[in-house]
Amino acid sequence: MSSLAPVRPVFRALVCTVVPDAASLDERSWNDAERLVEAALAMRPANLQRRVRLFLRFIEWAPLARYGRRFTSLDAERRARFLTSLQDHPVQLIRLGFWGVRALALMGYYGRPEGAKAIGYAADARGWEALG
After folding, report:
1. What Rg value do the Cα atoms of the chain yield, rounded?
2. Number of neighbours of residue 89 by Cβ within 10 angstroms
3. Interatomic CA distance for residues 130 and 132, integer angstroms
4. Which of 34, 44, 68, 72 has the fewest other C-beta atoms within 10 Å?
5. What tens digit of pLDDT does each residue of 20-71 get?
6. Long-range CB contacts (< 8 A, 24+ apart) of 50-58?
């Protein structure tokens, strides 16, 4: 089973909140981004994969208490506010979960060739010498 399949809508909403340009991705680009994330998760223990899915479910349902709506139903401003509350949460485990899924979101978006190009990233086997 795909690691992200059960939580795909919330993952995509998270990516669009962290990287607003992601809202313009087509289905092929989304599939590329998700493949990158799933490949990274596949190298991790099954219990970590479960925790990532569980945290994404938490992100989906926790805003109900504050906004009366699930994360995927919130507008961009409220999504960003909610994610900021996780980033700054007093419970360390919640902060760690947020930074973990944020890293996955960034990797999925910017790990695609188009995403890397958008920020001017061009890997070169020569490393820093290539810039000289």
Report:
1. 16
2. 14
3. 6
4. 68
5. 999 999 999 999 999 999 999 999 999 999 999 999 999 999 999 999 999 9
6. 51/97, 52/3, 52/100, 52/101, 52/104, 53/3, 53/4, 53/6, 53/7, 55/97, 55/98, 55/100, 55/101, 56/7, 56/10, 56/11, 56/14, 56/101, 57/7, 57/10, 58/97
